[in-house]
Design a protein that fits this description.
This protein has 18 helices and 7 strands. The protein is α+β, with helices and mostly antiparallel strands. The chain has a 4-stranded antiparallel β-sheet with strand order 1-2-3-4. α6 runs antiparallel to α11 and α10 packs across α18. Bound molecules: carboxymethyl coenzyme *A (CMC). The site of carboxymethyl coenzyme *A has 19 residues, from α17.
């Protein structure tokens, strides 16, 4: 079987050159063309095999465009560099959701709609006291966001555009509040209510760092940096967490459940959790003279160590978000008077050595957005477990834009991939007394994990 294309079809032909099937080739406005395989199985009995979706376009989307070779990221056609320089996070959220930059009155209305919803139901605050103080904020956020559906049953009908909009407002508005409350719980300080006269970024800083006993004025350089961080992390087309949100949402689950699933997916160290992992890695390396040792480990196939903050599935050149973050990083470090933060110097040395190393050059592994974001957040005073929480706040607008687009797309059905089955073929049930242990069968000690309470008297 071979494949070839003519003008608008991809032809699968047999050894004799006869057509098995012709598949339509679809063109977007820019970027690569895709072969439409939707009817391949019905017509031929063959499926495609693409476990990590490296060659699969899972949907049509008009939100974000990435050219990974050229290092270009556009939201609705606008470059990430221009958006960071000229825009605010809420304006970018509007752009992602509705397709165009808002007029002044549209932006004012959208800002009002968001600020109106920044508080959480007072009863929800009791959830926090059930969590240990050292609970990871992403665990808390995933749980609390999922629980929002219990508090807002009036906005979970996904087929009602007005209810969809209210849920979108609620989620964008409440995410900073929910994240900051997770932090306050971890340090044993009282929750700080949102202040709607502050903009989105300054309000987050206020909820994180103000205490009832002291006046607090959010530092404008920090607020600007948070705004930039939120914009660069707002959307990134069909990444793991966005695909998770779309998959969960495709079953018509409510938006709170879908976004909660996105938070869980983002948490992983290969995705949004990488910013926390970068700082941990830099601390583990410790000093510049140990960089070569860790570079060697990253290249060793028998060592699970990877350079966190390096590499990307789509970018095969410098991640444009990392470039933007480098500049913001300089501004923030200048503000805090740590122009020479040893961690930043270490990061730059690591980058310098990696970018000159044949392994990283040949595999096109460049610093990604997470490489610098953790250093910026650390300088602002945000503790490392909160780095991914901030990423989740930012990505909420992108998740919701993608979720809304999916619900409104008449072509979308429930996500239901097929598989290449490699398990046992049909066999007869074996009674318990005739079974023998096989290699690979799990056997536990039966003892509780250290964190599990033993059942006493039970
Ligand atoms: N350090 C060392 N080797 C690497 C790294 C790295 N950071 N990233 C990829 N490689 C190697 C990998 O071992 C593989 O080598 P080979 O071809 O010899 O088997 C090759 O490069 C291709 O890697 P891959 O894992 O097949 O690529 P992928 O597209 O599946 O993974 C990635 C992309 C981002 C998960 C991966 O580059 C990685 O693990 N990076 C570190 C984690 C990280 O920084 N994640 C943040 C991503 S950007 C923000 C976001 O999306 O949330």
């Amino acid at each position: 079987m071979r494949g070839s294309t003519n003008d608008s079809n991809f032809r699968l032909v047999n050894e004799q050159g006869e057509d098995i099937i012709q598949l339509p080739v679809l063109k977007g406005t820019v970027g690569f063309e895709v072969v439409d395989v939707r009817h391949l199985f019905d017509k031929t009995g063959f499926c495609t095999f693409d476990p990590s979706f490296g060659s699969t376009a899972s949907c049509r989307s008009a939100i974000t465009y990435i050219d990974g070779d050229a290092g270009i990221l556009l939201h609705r056609g606008y470059s990430i560099e221009q958006l960071v320089e000229k825009s605010s996070y809420l304006e970018v959220a509007y752009l992602l959701l509705f397709g165009e930059l808002p007029t002044a009155s549209e932006l004012a209305q959208f800002t009002r709609d968001i600020t109106y919803h920044t508080m959480v139901h007072e009863q929800l605050t009791r959830f926090y006291t059930g969590f240990p103080r050292d609970a990871h904020p992403m665990a808390v956020m995933a749980a609390v966001v999922s629980a929002l559906s219990a508090f807002y049953p009036d906005s979970i009908d996904v087929f009602d555009p007005q209810q969809r909009l209210i849920s979108i407002h609620r989620l964008i508005a409440k995410m900073p509040t929910i994240a900051a409350m997770a932090y306050k719980h971890s340090v044993g300080q009282p929750f700080v209510y949102p202040q709607n006269h502050l903009d989105y970024s300054a309000n987050f800083l206020n909820m994180m760092f103000s205490v009832p006993a002291e006046p607090y004025n959010p530092n404008p350089v920090f607020a600007k940096a948070i705004n930039a961080l939120l914009i660069v992390q707002a959307d990134h087309e069909q990444n793991a967490s966005t695909s998770t949100v779309r998959t969960v949402g495709s079953s018509r689950a409510n938006p709170f459940a879908s976004i909660s699933a996105g938070i869980a997916s983002l948490w992983g160290p290969l995705h949004g959790g990488a910013n926390e992992a970068v700082v941990e890695m830099l601390q583990q390396i410790g000093s510049k003279d140990r960089v070569p040792e860790f570079i060697k480990r990253a290249k060793d196939k028998n060592d699970s160590f990877r350079l966190m903050g390096f590499g990307h599935r789509v970018y095969k050149s410098y991640d444009p978000r990392a470039k933007v973050m480098q500049k913001i990083c300089d501004e923030v470090l200048h503000e805090v008077g740590h122009d020479h933060d040893p961690l930043l110097e270490l990061a730059r040395e690591l980058e310098r050595i990696a970018l000159a190393d044949e392994y990283f050059v040949s595999k096109k592994l460049y610093p990604n957005v997470d490489f610098y974001s953790g250093i910026i957040e650390r300088a602002i005073g945000i503790p490392s477990p909160m780095f991914t929480a901030l990423f989740a706040i930012a990505r909420t607008s992108g998740w919701l834009a993608q979720w809304k687009e999916m619900i409104e797309d008449p072509d979308q059905r429930i996500a239901r991939p097929r598989q290449l089955y490699t398990g046992a073929t049909k066999r007869d049930y074996v009674p318990l007394e005739r079974r023998t242990a096989k290699n690979g069968t799990p056997s536990g000690s039966g003892r509780p994990m250290p964190s599990e309470p033993a059942i006493v008297g039970g």
